[in-house]
Amino acid sequence: MTWTPSPMPSATPNSPTPRIVLGVAGGIAAYKAVELLRLLREKGYHVAPVLTPDATRFVGLVTFSALASEPARTSLYGDPTTPIPHTYLGSNASLIVVAPATAHLIARYAMGLADDLLTATLLATRAPVLLCPAMHTEMWVQPSVQENLATLRRRGVLVLEPEVGPLAGGDVGTGRLPQPEKIAALIEKIVEGYRGALSGVRVLISAGGTREAIDPVRVLSNRSSGRQGYALADAACRMGATVTLVSTVERSLNLDTVSAIEVVPVESAAEMHEAMMKRALESECVIMAAAVADFAPRASSEKLKKRDGVPELHLERTPDILADLVAQRANGQIIVGFAAETTDVLANALEKLRDKDVDLLVVNDVAAPGVGFEHATNEVLLLSRHEEPERVSLRSKEAVAWEILARVAALLPQGAQ
Ligand code: C5P
């Protein structure tokens, strides 16, 4: 299974009843979606089925309507309950799952088409999306199908790989939809994983590269975009945390988190140090995702003039914020550090975990493609004292944030949430 991204749900994450949109595309495995629907209802979830027109050739709307929380839908038009069913479904969903997802549905979704209710709903949501592809092996191995899936994964879509087994028409191969129990268990993991996992926890996060003044107009900085830190702030907020983000960069937050997250703008390592140390005292979790300069020049109060020749910059050590946070760590507080490595990643990272005495070290292999600074994606190793190292494969920074915070939630002392 490839466990990719998660833009977290825009619907109220702590709502007592998760709302699942169950998309069904037109393949023979559509019959298994009936059982999946029943299992999801058994778990107490609100389930709204959306079938593509072709799916209704395999299974009936009546069957789905009888088992679901609201009538099964197939069309963008003529809905007696709402004139815009795709936005109603998309914005209220905790999760959208498409089972089975056909090659055609995958292609339409990857292209951003919205020519039926299901694809329009997929475009109208910020909830996590789980695709469960099912098709004949010949179709599954087509580069077009795999490239479309790769595109979707990159955008944060979760994909449950099909299994090997008997297919329609007596063939055997890869392409079989996993059993409904397996899909339902995965859905439960996704839905329950984010709901209130950090509720009542105060999380302090730093983001972006620090800017160290050379003179009133020039700075020394680095390529950090702040994207991972912002993704952490968004995800933590949706997991129920109270979030403060100390950042050197201004990026957009999601509509539903923007008013809940306190953003403290800073520029230099010294400013970030002051902002973090003060606020850390009242935080159960501190995450140093910022790329803090290790050295800074002593800033000239006047602009250095060209006519005075090439200046010599004398650099001095900046405060080690992480070390100072660890030194003043309160009982039970979880401190997360980041480390960028290029060689001997695991060995160096294990050494760093010991040296820095953090609870969780998030290690980037910045030499790998698509990883680290300026990318929308990341691939990390999660290291903590008593757990095996965990590799989080390449996925969106939002999805990486989700994985990091799931680890944080597990590390927090019982009762902190
Ligand atoms: O030792 P290294 O620079 O790899 O450590 C990186 C970690 O330390 C990051 O979490 C970063 O935010 C933090 N850091 C810090 N203060 C510094 C330099 C790095 O808190 N001056």
Helix content: 25-40%
Q: What distance separates the N and C termini?
A: 30 Å
- Tally of individual helices: 13
Q: What is the CATH C level class of the largest domain, in words?
A: Alpha Beta
Low-confidence stretches: 1-16
Question: Helix/strand/pairing class, anyone?
Answer: alpha/beta
Summarize the entry for a quick read.
The chain has 417 residues and is of the alpha/beta class.
Considering the chains and any ligands shown, give keywords for the structure.
417 residues, alpha/beta, Rossmann fold, five-stranded parallel β-sheet, 13 helices, elongated, disordered N terminus, binds cytidine-5'-monophosphate
Structural overview:
The chain is α/β, with parallel strands linked by helices and 417 residues long. The chain has 2 domains: 19-191, Flavin prenyltransferase-like (Rossmann fold); 202-303 and 312-411, 3-Layer(aba) Sandwich (Rossmann fold). The chain is 32% helix and 23% strand. The chain has helices spanning 30-42, 61-67, 85-92, 103-111, 117-123, 137-140, 143-154, 180-194, 227-238, 269-280, 321-327, 345-356, 397-411, and strands at 19-24, 46-51, 95-101, 129-133, 158-159, 163-166, 172-176, 202-207, 212-213, 219-220, 242-247, 262-265, 285-288, 295-297, 315-317, 334-341, 360-365, 377-384, 390-396. Strands 12-11-8-13-16-17-18-19 form an 8-stranded mixed β-sheet, with helices on both faces. A hairpin with a 5-residue loop joins β6 (163-166) and β7. It is elongated, with a radius of gyration of 24 Å. The two termini are 30 Å apart. The model is unreliable at 1-16 (pLDDT under 50). The structure holds cytidine-5'-monophosphate. Cytidine-5'-monophosphate binds at residues 269, 288, 290, 292, 294, 318, 320-322, 337-339.
